[in-house]
Write a structure and sequence with these properties.
By secondary structure, this protein is mainly beta. The chain has one helix at about 55-65, and strands spanning about 5-10, 15-20, 25-40, 45-55, 70-85, 90-105, 115, 140, 150-155.
Length: about 160
């Protein structure tokens, strides 16, 4: 079974970072993704979806240092749902993406293509917090003919092309 989410969006606010009693860092921040479409009258509409992101340990520390409101970010992780009780004892439900790959993206000057910054990914995280790297890694392709980044599989195949 697979539980994988990939998002490219803008940060809605600076990450909120706290440290647990054990010293483990956890960051929470929202990102917005946009979808443009033509309605039945031929008018362009923009639909914005908000996503709650949670990053732990190394990724939380890097988010605290490098992410700021409005920045464009690539997030890869898993979808989670949890239940908690508010101050009044009411049950509340929340859906979050627990990030295991974060990459800061920047728009190039004079164009709509993207470039990646040296933001940590699972490949650059310390061995103690890195994920299992037995699966092929992914990165963001900066094809200038596309307004959106595409994911490129970087398997270690020795293909002649």
């Amino acid at each position: 079974m697979i539980n994988k989410v990939i998002l490219v969006g803008n940060l809605g606010k600076d990450p909120e970072v706290r440290r647990l009693e054990s010293g483990t860092a956890v960051a929470k921040f929202p990102i917005a993704t946009n979808e443009n479409y033509k309605d039945k009258n031929g008018e362009w509409q923009k639909n914005t979806e908000w996503h709650d992101i949670v990053a732990w340990r190394y990724h939380a520390e890097m988010a605290e240092r490098d992410l700021k409101k409005g920045k464009l970010v690539y997030v890869e992780g898993k979808l989670t749902h949890r239940k908690y009780q508010d101050k009044d004892g009411n049950d509340r439900y929340i859906t979050e993406i627990v990030a295991n790959v974060l990459k800061l993206l920047e728009r190039r000057e004079g164009g709509s293509s993207f470039t990646t910054n040296n933001f940590p990914s699972e490949e650059s995280a310390p061995a103690a917090v890195a994920n299992d790297n037995s699966a092929p890694s992914t990165s963001v392709d900066t094809d200038s003919s596309s307004a959106e980044p595409t994911i490129v599989d970087q398997a270690d195949d020795d293909l002649p092309f």
